[in-house]
Amino acid sequence: MLDRETGAVHAANEHRQYRSASLVKLFIALDYLESHGPDYEIPADDLALLEPMLRSSNDDAASVLWVRDGWEEIVNRMVAKIGLTDTAPPPAEKRGTWGYTAVSAADIAKTYQYVLEDAHPKFRDFIMDNLEQFTKCGDDGFDQSFGIPSALRRPGAVKQGWSGFGAAPAPGEECVSEDTKRVLASPEARSALAVASSGDVDLTSRVMHTSGTADGDRRIVVVLTSEPTTLSWADSADRITDLTRAVYREALA
After folding, report:
1. Which InterPro entries does the record cross-reference, listed alphabetically (predicted)?
2. 194 lies in a domain?
3. pTM, whole model, 2 decimals?
């Protein structure tokens, strides 16, 4: 957790690499905005991709933008722009699987800091406003209210990530909401079991991540986890929520 007012950082294993799952959508959206410039008026067709990708973690929208805007070059541009040290594109043989991008908690926190403090105000407002409108249900039917939304009293912008839990929730665990549609065969979920290892990044375990801001964007919070396959979605969600609450409280102690 980074306190933007005092500069205080509370961290553990902050440079450990994880596969990003949907956290890479932060890079996809920011790269889109940076590439077009602040005077560009986003067409309606692109808004229909960017907004659900940020708010409801829509995988199909991310896949369209990933291919159209340069695949791994999106990540390379963001690494150079923000000065990320632990982030790398997916392995060459998995370049189409954007969720295999390597990230760390430190780099995701630095990305939020860049958006809030260095990006053009138009880009900042677009990304943060959409993340503040995060939906309870992801577009693949999973409940994305774990972590920051459930653990903190004043959550702000939120971007979640998960991978390896299957293409759809287990029967009885579906997230149903009026504010999001369901896309049951997401590219990320379909490929979750067809994995390969590369370097030090674990491409086989389940992952569940929570990231965002709290307390009026004063604090940036990032918690990345690998999850045992013995745990259900609900158990993993409870686990990361408890961990997020503990990180926040320890940082303020």
Report:
1. Beta-lactam/transpept-like
2. no
3. 0.90
Average pLDDT of adjacent 10-residue blocks, the chain of 253 residues: 97 97 98 98 96 97 97 98 98 95 98 98 98 97 97 97 92 74 39 38 85 98 95 96 97 93
pLDDT score of 178:
53
Question: How far apart (Å, rounded) are the C-alpha atoms in residues 81 and 89?
Answer: 15
Q: Which of 125, 123, 31, 116 is nearest to 80 (CA)?
A: 31
In a domain, 124, yes or no: yes
Indicate whether 197 belongs to any domain.
no
Residue 192 lies in a domain: no
Q: What is the pLDDT of residue 172?
A: 85
* CB contact at 8 A, 183 and 139: yes
What is the residue range of 235's domain?
2-186+202-251
Burial bucket for residue 172 (CB in 10 Å: 0-12, 13-18, 19+)? exposed
Structure tokens at 156: 């702000």
**Total number of domains constituting the chain:** 1
Residue 120 is part of a domain; what is its CATH number? 3.40.710.10
Cα separations in angstroms, 190 against 36, 41, 97, 100, 152: 31, 34, 10, 13, 32
